[in-house]
Amino acid sequence: MKRLIFSVVALCSLLSASAQITLGEKGGVISGSIESNNIVYFNDKALSTPAPDTHFGSNDYIKVDYAIDRFSAGIQLETYLPALQGYEIGNYGKQFKVLTPMVYAQWQDKSYSVTVGNLYDQFGNGLIFRTFEDRQLGFNNTLLGVRATANIGNYVAVKALYGRPRLYTNYKSCWAGGADLSLSLGDMFGMKQGSLFIEGSYANRMDDQIGKATDNLLNMYSARLNMDIAGVTLRGEYAGKGIDKSNASNSSDKGKAIYGELGYSVGNFSFTAMGRVLDKMGTPLCATGNGTGNTLNYLPALTRQYTYMLANLNPYQVNVEGEVGGQADFYYSYRSKTNRYRYWNIHANYSTYYTLRKSQSKSGNRERLWQDINVDVERQWGKKLKTTLLYSFQEWNPYHGYHHRTYVSNIFVADVQYKFNRKTSMRVEAQYLLSGEYEGDWVAGLVEFNLAPKWSFFVSDMYNIGRTDRNGEYKGTKKNYYSVGGSYTIKRTRIQLSYGRNRAGFICSGGVCRYSPEYNGINIAVTSSF
Prior knowledge:
Shape: globular
Helix content: under 10%
Strand content: over 45%
Radius of gyration: 25 Å
Structural class: mainly beta
Number of strands: 33
Number of helices: 2
């Protein structure tokens, strides 16, 4: 607890002096950000997971950037004192960590750039290569190396990079890199409206620990087509992967992925459909490593990303060994011609996924992995009142398709927001999950009160009612997961304090998820930028 108080006081002292700094006559600018996420854990007899021995966790990030003319550089420092529960970084090395700083230096000209240091980048849809950071997930698979880019007019864009992993493990034997090429056919042939691109990428990974020289190099490639013409959007990508000798691979087969997207927009109506086939595309950044951070490519769940508590209890987890499916979205908006504060937004979504091969299941049949149907209607009644109603049908396989078994949930949400004046507003959520399977029924509610631009307060609760099935067997836990808290914002600094229980489950961001154990505790988060 003393460490927490010291950390908060130190951060507040730094934040009070935060302001953008300009250096020299040429106007070099220093900017940056500070983020600190802290939890004080308590033992709770109603929960199955005990509090950690330290009863405390703290994930902290400090980032500073400097820019002048075409040159920029930056550094990021991370500390885990120790890491919060559920973050993989806490499983490696010492309990208390100050990680080697991430650094970069870049020269950006009109037609080219060169970057040395930690690299974040993506080829196409990320099917063969993506490095990124997501602090909510505790995910960071950056490469430490060099990248160069070049543009020839508006016609050709090319980039190449090469480096080695930085986080999770100290793999000096691993290297990864690749190149990406984009050709604008629309500009080449003088298209007056719309755009047309053909693109291609190559990526590789090498690990000397595998053994044979013929086995330690993994090659991947992709080809893409992107088109936007007269309200129609078309995206397509095919990716291929060589034989993967990594620890995570349980076969010597090659991999492939196919992605397609079609969109159409006219007036108040828009439609988007996307489909994807994955076949053995899980690719570790280092072949002899493990953990979610040891990932070279990006394979998110292409389903609706929920924000409501009960709708997000059991998010879909991608089956990288083999899946096929997709989703479709329909949007319609109606605006009042006489009152701009009155409108309807109607959204419908459907997604479904199956195992790719019969051999993935014990039954020898292709099994359903996921299905959901969602309809939500948003109504702005005037300046003050807005309502949102959501219905979500979800069917999911708890065995990832290996067994023939799915659970079904029906979720109902009512969300009401009322503005008393320009600064004061209140939002109320009421949610119900109806299910005769798994843990039975749930009920949840939230009340949020805002005093813009500085104060915000909330109280929420999520309770598992359970249910007795046809055989007279009770399903459920009768646990409630309550939370109360608030936040204060001053200029570019936000301090949030909350207390409550958190249910075990998957926390997802951008379709990528991590598992978080249940806990009871006080959460203190501080973010600031300068």
